[in-house]
């Protein structure tokens, strides 16, 4: 088969790769219905995370079960499934507590490179969630979003303790930040402030349920949020960038006793101890345990209640993978979907 | 009157100071029954926090109301009261949410220097909690502990989501860490692991309810906690030191999805972003909103259910303030109480 392989900074190719095979009896092979580029794929693409080997790319996926290993009990060939970037057994004590991304048996599914027509998924019974019936083609982008950006935005909103009556601020207007707006709306937030200076992303944020847009950032952004909240700060703030600046902006936008949910992967970002201490906020984040939310997210999507697929504003065949990455790197696209 | 004044590193004197007076109509003046040295007083004592001016010291207090301002409604001369190091109005939205230490009108009571016979307490109605009756002399050390170390340990345990069935680890065997053991016990923890290598502190931890002692620290300490928790880590970990090492030890002792309550004031401690991100724990801490817990703590003490006053293992007259600081600095004493 042919899939995306990163050879070096900004050098990504649609290249020959071996077909994935069942390795463990708990594996499944799926035929992808679509795949896409994650904001976190841009770190290695830009050369910030370096690898000396050509690396198969991609970790977001949904599609049809092609084959299952002999120990797989709950899935069968032909089912449409969605999974997360971390495989999980869904039975250990950590999974039972809702932290599937840190399952005692977790494995990175993306190691197989999901930007390809086929993918091996370990721990298939625990990892993959089937839809009730085969979804229409129109639902595929939203189901693909559930695999990572929506699940991550949902975790961020949950970590930020979003709920009825709360004022929520979202730092970061990428696909995860925008999906966090969907989550905040569904979780009953009273006011949802999207911090964005890009007209097309502002428009989508409003469509997803944002009640206010703040274009300022840094000190000015913090001052603006304080002004809008009688000087107190927001109850819940979502950080979906991963830089030091964004993290401190999020912390400083939060009222004492409030909650910050952070899902941007920190790159060179340390949190200054004294600032964090005196801010007196709750901090929670990390690689989202998307699996926890998948059954609910799939239902919301299949019932037409949310449409996170709108974050894909560029669709290309996988053969044009290089252009798909370029468009996101240059911020011409929010998120690129590849047809396979 | 004469009280403790810090002139420079390790130069603390029992010195003449002006008698405090009512400044605002919401003030009270209290006559202290006892006062003490806080672990955080050692930072300026050691010259880590520097001031160019002679500084009145101390922020832990309990005693008898001597005088109240004209706007004080709920207190009267002669009552025995306990307050926190931050004055709070107890009515604003932040206080109502339980974050009195960040009250929109908060003031640092310690600015007046509580290591003295008299102290001005701002926002007296919101700040001071009276006992039902005048306590016996034997209860004074425990009521004094409620003013800071016990309230701080209690906040740490609450921030770490301690509760029935949980395994709790406590990093730091100072008075706050030891009081966190009392809190964990009262909050129903199943297992309480005190990390300490000092025999006298281990003994007190066990007396307060610790079920296990771990003497290792750093990597070895983390490995030991993992070993004791089937490789998962503790559910709840309390950080009561304030150094980078202690904070990372606490984070690494915590299972994914678990909670770290941190109350050690960070000194030059930054939290590495990636480590915090991938640890996937909840972090909450800051200057403890002691006022939230005072009514409950006072009842537990007056009913004889807890005896946090045992953390005071050295009692001196306030005139020997220099020796009281020296003993704590050299770790000869856990905590020094001064009779006034």
UniProtKB/TrEMBL annotation, chains A, B:
<dbReference type="InterPro" id="IPR002328">
    <property type="entry name" value="ADH_Zn_CS"/>
</dbReference>
<dbReference type="Pfam" id="PF00107">
    <property type="entry name" value="ADH_zinc_N"/>
</dbReference>
<keyword id="KW-0560">Oxidoreductase</keyword>
<dbReference type="InterPro" id="IPR013154">
    <property type="entry name" value="ADH-like_N"/>
</dbReference>
<dbReference type="InterPro" id="IPR011032">
    <property type="entry name" value="GroES-like_sf"/>
</dbReference>
<dbReference type="InterPro" id="IPR036291">
    <property type="entry name" value="NAD(P)-bd_dom_sf"/>
</dbReference>
<keyword id="KW-0862">Zinc</keyword>
<feature type="domain" description="Enoyl reductase (ER)">
    <location>
        <begin position="8"/>
        <end position="338"/>
    </location>
</feature>
<dbReference type="InterPro" id="IPR013149">
    <property type="entry name" value="ADH-like_C"/>
</dbReference>
<dbReference type="Pfam" id="PF08240">
    <property type="entry name" value="ADH_N"/>
</dbReference>
<dbReference type="InterPro" id="IPR020843">
    <property type="entry name" value="ER"/>
</dbReference>
<protein>
    <submittedName>
        <fullName>Zinc-dependent alcohol dehydrogenase family protein</fullName>
    </submittedName>
</protein>
<comment type="similarity">
    <text>Belongs to the zinc-containing alcohol dehydrogenase family.</text>
</comment>
<keyword id="KW-0479">Metal-binding</keyword>
